[in-house]
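Design a sequence for this backbone.
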């Protein structure tokens, strides 16, 4: 019988104060990922941001620093945001899962990223919903399939809908932002070097769609 995962719900305080939420996330035991990670990595950015960017989970560097998108994928994302004309300081960035999931190879100490399971994504979702309620963004950008499925459902196919302007499923959320799904910046880094420029341009094109939506909201 599969182990029951309690989920984050009981650890999420009833507040829209992001710093209180971030502090509380340090004590979350909603799934087993807190056991091996250094700390939970909560979102960062302005509570009044128009745009919320959501990735998969913190990586090795984010786990050590306690901040999202500070490693190589974050640097690439920064470049793509600049190329798309979006000010990084004007967005809120976070992840679908707040603790780093990794495996240790038999030899060597480098921790290797492991994709969180659907159960872990669902367990962590109350934190993401609390962030959405607190920031109330006009536009949500889902970076990669894990983030996209966390909000749009397990049947969502990123390859079919990337770059489109979507909405959240009706009736499930207290807010109704525009939603754009695209790839996670780490996929650009992981792809074949000869395709990297093209993959970066495709990510930037999707973020240009977001920049257009921001202009529509007067930002
Ligand atoms: S990954 Fe999410 S649900 Fe699991 S312990 Fe960390 S904060 Fe809690």
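Sequence:
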């Amino acid at each position: 019988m599969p182990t029951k995962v309690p989920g984050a719900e009981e650890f999420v305080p009833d507040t829209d104060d992001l710093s209180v939420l971030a502090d509380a996330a340090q004590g979350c035991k909603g799934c087993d990922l807190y056991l091996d990670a250094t700390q939970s990595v909560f979102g960062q950015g302005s509570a009044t941001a128009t745009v919320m960017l959501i990735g998969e989970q913190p990586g090795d560097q984010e786990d050590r620093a306690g901040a999202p998108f500070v490693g190589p994928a974050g640097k690439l994302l920064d470049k793509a945001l600049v190329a798309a004309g979006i000010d990084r300081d004007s967005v809120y960035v976070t992840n679908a899962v707040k603790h780093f999931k990794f495996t240790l190879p038999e030899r060597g100490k480098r921790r290797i990223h492991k994709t969180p399971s659907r159960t872990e994504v669902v367990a962590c979702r109350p934190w993401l919903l609390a962030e959405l309620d607190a920031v109330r963004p006009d536009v949500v950008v889902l970076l990669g399939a894990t983030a996209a499925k966390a909000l749009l459902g397990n049947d969502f196919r990123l390859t079919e809908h990337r770059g489109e302007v979507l909405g959240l499923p009706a009736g499930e959320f207290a807010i109704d932002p525009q939603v754009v799904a695209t790839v996670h910046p780490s996929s650009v880094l992981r792809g074949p070097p000869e395709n990297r420029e093209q993959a970066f341009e495709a990510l930037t094109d999707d973020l240009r769609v977001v920049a257009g939506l921001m202009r529509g909201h007067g930002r």
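Strands lie at 51-55, 91-95, 102-103, 112-113, 139-143, 165-167, 178-182.
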